[in-house]
Amino acid sequence: MTAPAAETWLKVRPEGLYCVPGDFFIDPLRAVPRAVITHAHADHARPGHGAVLATAETLALMRARLGAAAAGASQQAAALGEPLTLGGVRVWLAPAGHVLGSAQVAMEYRGRRVAVSGDYKRAADPTCAGFEPVRCDVFVTEATFALPVFRHPRAGGEIARLLASLALFPGRSHLIGCYALGKCQRVIALLRQAGWQRPIYLHGALMALCRLYEAFGVPLGDLRPLAGAAKADLAGAIVLAPPSAQADRWSGRLADPVTALASGWMQVRARARARGVELPLVISDHADWDALNATIDETGAEEVWVTHGAEEALVHAASRRGLRARALRLIGYGEEGGEADGAADGEAP
Amino acid sequence: MKPFAALLERLAFTQARGAKLALLQRYFAATPDPDRGFGLAALTGGLRLATARPAQIRALIATRTDPELFALAYDYVGDLAETVALMWPDGDPGAGPPGLAEVIGALERASRPEVPARLAAWLDCCDASERLALLKLITGGLRVGVSARLAKVALAGLGAGRVSVEEIEEVWHALAPPYGALFAWLEGRGERPDPAGAPSFRPPMLAHPLEAEDLARLDVAAYRAEWKWDGVRVQLAAGPGGRALFSRGAEDMSAAFPDIVAAMGFAAVLDGELLVVREGMVAPFADLQQRLNRKAPSARLLASHPAGVHLYDMLFEGEEDLRALPFAARRARLETWFARVRPARMTLSPLLTAADRATLTALRDGAREAGIEGLMLKRADSPYLAGRPRGLWWKWKRAPLSIDAVLLYAQHGHGKRGGLYSDYTFGLWREDGVLVPVGKAYSGFTDAELLILDRWIRAHTIARFGPVREVEKALVLEVAFDAAQRSARHKSGVALRFPRISRIRADKPAAEADRLATLLGLIGHADD
Ligand SMILES: [Zn+2]
Ligand SMILES: [Zn+2]
């Protein structure tokens, strides 16, 4: 018996990627009866679904962000690597290394295996479980940074640049724009690894998720709300805020701030300049070009479906290596407001 | 290479002067000789290197990358050097980048065809940031917004008060990279370098813009008025030790203007405006721009675009320093000297007569002809002081003009705006209902407006010609400019001086944009 081709049972619908025999969507773009959610970023975890299957961390993050009522009428936590069967499809989650709780969705149906990456990265991250490649026939990969110019430097080196700037401008606050979920906590953890033990000040929008990370066993050290801080304490301090809040009036309370932004997009100077940033930090929670290609090869997949990002280049590169590759053209990821970084320009959360 | 690359990377994103100075000072203090001296030379334009053409860089990257991927990447990034720096495969991480002195030494000796092979070997030892610094150096486009003046202020900071920036400028033109003697002097390890009669630059006196409240308070009788010529402010320094033509930023422009230097057979330091002058008529700034673009002009360009200088002031006559004298006295010395010496290609910038505020205002508002930017007002008793002292000299530019034009084409900007559509061609309606291009603008908009324009252009492209996108004729831009000049080289018959986008008029339908006839009516009448 030949296994049915993946596209006969895994289809692109207006709501998103749909597993026909399992009757569930993966990261659907609008409310559906049954959803498997890779991670809690707003463009992947939308409100109002019926049954939601995800890691316990992702479910907790969804409740914190969307409110318990909108985070799924019923929630089912799945441990990483623990298989369950939905309509004849064996489904399990594998770590994606993107943010706390992030997972790939692996599916096996009649002898054919598909892995949907969600968002992922291969670089080490002290705040979440590292990516594990899933051997599969079809790999559905994200492509946020799928151009060969995106080759992220070591995050530790970027943190060293930040610390060097603090040494050169000891009287200036360093205001770092970063997403509330994932990037914020990773930057804090990297700073702690680099030996920065002083208090880190947080914009109000960031504190709750940091506390949730800590509840899941990710220590973040001395965090303080920006709201109560004295101006004198902020001189030479590190302050974190969502990118959209950078120009807020409260930032006027900071001492002559050096504005920084932690994002993979900072690798291209024109993009960094357009954001008016003085210290661009290339710290990304997505796989870079080299990691995308290496991961595709590691999965052993003979077929690659490329979604959300620069599909064209990755499809071209995979085809050159003899793989069957196509762009899925799912619209709607990495575009919505909130933590997206300006529609044309944002690092897809 | 590493400290230099790190410096360039920070400077590229730093706007504030104080922060730039801190970065430069740290670089000069922390980087050993001779690398820091070569870094200084690279920043101040003091290097003569074998450079590589864009075509050579493209050929090089084609040996290492897939052409289709390169094309996609280049379209996204918009800057050739940056695309190559980011895409170049990582080489041997243990090798370590070459030193700046090593790179510059090799490039000074190399011929242009030898450059790519050298470059490839270096790129293999560098990380992305070092690769970009190297490529910018070799393509001659650092563009990090550091003037020679700013670098010298940073150097004065290195001297911790022992040496002033004016003292540095006076010896500067006797120095050469890697400036070992200069650093030794600044750090108190060596003597002041001896300029030994070489023509040296004197920091110029600059004017403040005249605002309405300044005008209201102005004691007109105490000032002398002259035209503010629309050229480039220069200093001519000549004597037995040599001749040099300096920009107001102390850049030595002599090689680009041999016609002026040839006419400097005198011993004096003069302040004036560099212009293109044909049969006594000042040509539009665009003509001077063509000369400024050429480091070594051809005989043909020298003949078609002859340079001249309108003289404003005299700082030295022979060895005598006139700078402490009042302006009126210096002017009298200049007039007497000029009558005697009569240097070719030079004229005295005339003093204007204006007894009261109303006459001054009329003069300034009437100044629409090519070559005049407005008025200069100088206190008759002002000594010649370095910098921009308050209340002595005023510049009073005529009000900008503006038109509402329709966006026609867009192109990627270069360098700092690479990857975004920041280069706009706009047009006006002709009587027959055709939109005629009248100019290009690359400035005036905010960063936020740039993103809006970039997004609009991508969404409204109707055709692509190489790097150029033609867009729907639907977006009106308010374009400000300093003057409109008749031009045979432009299809519209008119050239704009310093056009810039002052506003996006999303509220205005394209059909209501201005007509070409309106613009033609704004042309200065000097040449009619
Ligand atoms: Zn995403
Ligand atoms: Zn995400």
What is the strand and helix layout of this fold?
The complex is a heterodimer of chains A (about 350) and B (about 525).
Chain A: E1 10-13, E2 16-19, E3 24-26, E4 34-36, E5 51-54, H1 56-66, E6 74-77, E7 84-86, E8 89-95, E9 103-109, E10 112-116, E11 138-143, H2 155-168, E12 174-177, H3 183-193, E13 200-202, H4 204-215, E14 223-225, H5 231-234, E15 238-241, E16 258-262, H6 269-274, E17 279-281, H7 289-299, E18 303-309, H8 311-320, E19 324-327
Parallel strand pairs in A: 3-4, 4-5, 5-6, 10-11, 11-18, 12-15, 12-16, 13-14, 13-15, 16-17, 18-19
Antiparallel strand pairs in A: 1-2, 2-3, 7-8, 8-9, 9-10
Chain B: H1 2-11, H2 17-30, H3 35-43, H4 54-62, H5 67-77, H6 80-87, H7 100-109, H8 115-123, H9 128-138, H10 148-158, H11 165-172, H12 180-186, E1 208-209, H13 212-217, E2 223-229, E3 232-239, E4 242-247, H14 258-262, E5 268-278, E6 281-282, H15 285-292, H16 299-304, E7 307-317, E8 320-321, H17 327-341, E9 346-348, E10 351-352, H18 357-366, E11 372-379, E12 393-397, E13 401-412, E14 421-429, E15 435-441, H19 447-459, E16 461-465, E17 468-471, E18 476-481, E19 483-486, E20 494-497, E21 500-505, H20 516-520
Parallel strand pairs in B: 1-12, 7-9
Antiparallel strand pairs in B: 2-10, 2-11, 3-4, 3-5, 5-6, 5-7, 7-8, 11-12, 13-14, 13-17, 13-18, 14-15, 16-17, 18-21, 19-20
The complex binds zinc ion (2 copies).
How would you describe what is shown here?
The complex is a heterodimer of chains A (349) and B (528). In chain A, 23% of the residues lie in helices and 24% in strands. Chain A is an alpha/beta fold and 349 residues long. Chain A starts with 9 loop residues before the first strand and ends in a 22-residue tail after the last strand. In chain B, the strands form 4 sheets. In chain B, strands 3, 4, 5, 6, 7, 8 and 9 form a 7-stranded mixed beta sheet that branches. In chain B, strands 13, 14, 15, 16, 17, 18 and 21 form a 7-stranded antiparallel beta sheet that branches. In chain B, a hairpin with an 8-residue loop joins strand 13 (401-412) and strand 14 (421-429). Chain B is globular and about 70 Å long. The model of chain B has no long low-confidence stretch (mean pLDDT 89). Chain B folds into 3 domains: 2-139, DNA ligase i, domain 1 (Orthogonal Bundle), CATH 1.10.3260; 208-397, DNA ligase/mRNA capping enzyme (D-amino Acid Aminotransferase, Chain A, domain 1, 2-Layer Sandwich); 401-527, OB fold (Dihydrolipoamide Acetyltransferase, E2P). Chain B has 528 residues and is α+β, with helices and mostly antiparallel strands. In chain B, 35% of the residues lie in helices and 23% in strands. The interface between A and B is large, with 35 and 40 residues. Bound molecules: zinc ion (2 copies).
